[in-house]
Amino acid sequence: MSYQKDFAWGCATSSYQIEGAYNEDGKGLNIWDVFCQDKGRVFEGHTGDIACDHYHLFKKDVELMASLGLKAYRFSINWARVLPEGTGRINEKGIAFYNELIDCLLAKNITPYITLYHWELPYELHKQGGWLNPNIVEWFGEYAALVSERFSDRVTNFFTINEPQVFIGLGYITGEHAPGLKCTLTDQLIMHQNVLKAHGRAVQKLREKAHQPIKIGIAPTSSMCYPKTESKEDIEAARQAIFSIPEDRYRWAWNVTAWSDPVILGAFPDEFLKRFESVMPHYSQEDMKLISEPTDIYGQNIYNGIEIRCGEDHKPEYIKRDAGFPYTANNWPITPKSLYWGPYFLYERYKKPIYITENGCASPDFKSFDGKIHDGGRINFLERYLTEMEKVTDKIDLRGYFQWSLLDNFEWHCGYRDRFGITYVDFETQERTLKDSALWYKEYIKQHS
Ligand code: IFM
């Protein structure tokens, strides 16, 4: 039971959540810039206009990472910063920003992992239909080609799309996230198709333009399922549950298989086909080939899970959480076993080297009289989850872990209320203070590297 030699111990962030500088140096607007202007959409009318001002403070942030001994850093490119209209005209100042960030990371021996899409859809593309327009497959391909051309001389790890479950589920089904739409099921399924095809085109383009061999994967999310006991029956029930598709019409997108099966296995799960075949857009053989363009790695964002046992009818039975069950500050259940059984089941099904591309928690952090942030709850969370993750290392090919997140940041429709960082950010002064959990993580990395 031990981590691989070059295990990528890292932190993750995303551009809109930390960069700020929303209209500087030629950047175009994206759907979140515009969504946040519509007051009442986000908690207390917060916006990502300034966020953590990482655009100006990135050197300091890389210093922080180095001080923690991080081996890897996963960040996303803000599409409209490099292509203000989404396609066509390149913004060289945006490219220069990411070049400097990458160089800074490499100078500190921190390996960069780039995510192409962490929900920053250029507003100009949204006006043309965004994910509903089939042209997005080529738009995304053009963007991927640019990223590869400009950065793959130094960056060799890429994730195409972060959490399609969330940006489709909350952005186009419930409307809580940008662009705030409640689309029909037919449109949702067209977007599902366009996302899958865009992923495939990005894989092709990243590889075509790469200056050296690179590794590519997707980074979805979903609730994991874990068995109540280690009996064969409970394990099988948890396996069935984790790969099933929620029946709730507003939550169908929150599943693993409708996204990852076509990407990795080249086919949709039967349950998905049975439920949606009459509404789904047509998929040609060529489409399926594009969607399943071979990838090298698999990312999964894991925050929590559901305990399952085998019911009397031999079907998975969801176990109700008892009174007193622990929850994070934003009300997510604390379920360390999801970081054992999640990767275990995913590796069994997809047989790809796995990265935990996000894991962490929100906690009610504030400064103590001694000026420090004693976030013991987060330490407890990380210790419990990482203890479970370590146990799975000898059963699967686990390559890395990215704690979410390096900094407190803009938590989407919850604004700056939910603090996920291991670094405390004072959003008035932009002062950064390492929390106790950051120092704990530093020590953990040291001991496990
Ligand atoms: O902040 C988000 C991130 O953007 C995507 N994954 C979950 C995190 C916490 O909600």
How would you describe what is shown here?
This protein has 449 residues and is an alpha/beta fold. It has one domain: TIM Barrel. Helix content is 40%, strand content 14%. The protein has helices at 15-18, 31-37, 54-67, 79-82, 92-107, 123-127, 136-151, 164-173, 185-209, 232-242, 257-265, 270-276, 285-291, 338-350, 376-392, 436-448, and strands at 8-12, 72-76, 111-117, 157-162, 215-219, 224-227, 298-301, 305-310, 316-318, 354-359, 398-404, 423-425, 432-434. Strands 5-4-3-2-1-11-10-7 form an 8-stranded parallel sheet. Strands 6-8-9 form a 3-stranded mixed sheet. Helix 7 (136-151) runs parallel beside helix 9. It is globular, with a radius of gyration of 21 Å. The two termini are 13 Å apart. 5-hydroxymethyl-3,4-dihydroxypiperidine binds at residues 14, 17, 163, 301, 358, 404, 411, 420. The site of 5-hydroxymethyl-3,4-dihydroxypiperidine (IFM) has 8 residues, from loops.
What percentage of amino acids are in beta strands?
Answer: 5-15%
Q: Which outline best applies?
A: globular
Number of helices: 16
- Average pLDDT works out at 98
In total, the number of domains comes to 1
How is the CATH topology named?
TIM Barrel
Q: Give the helix level as a range of percent.
A: 25-40%
Q: What small molecules accompany the polymer chains? A: 5-hydroxymethyl-3,4-dihydroxypiperidine
Tell me the structural class. Answer: alpha/beta
- The CATH architecture classification is Alpha-Beta Barrel
List keywords for this structure.
449 residues; alpha/beta; TIM Barrel; 8-stranded parallel β-sheet; 16 helices; 40% helix; globular; binds 5-hydroxymethyl-3,4-dihydroxypiperidine
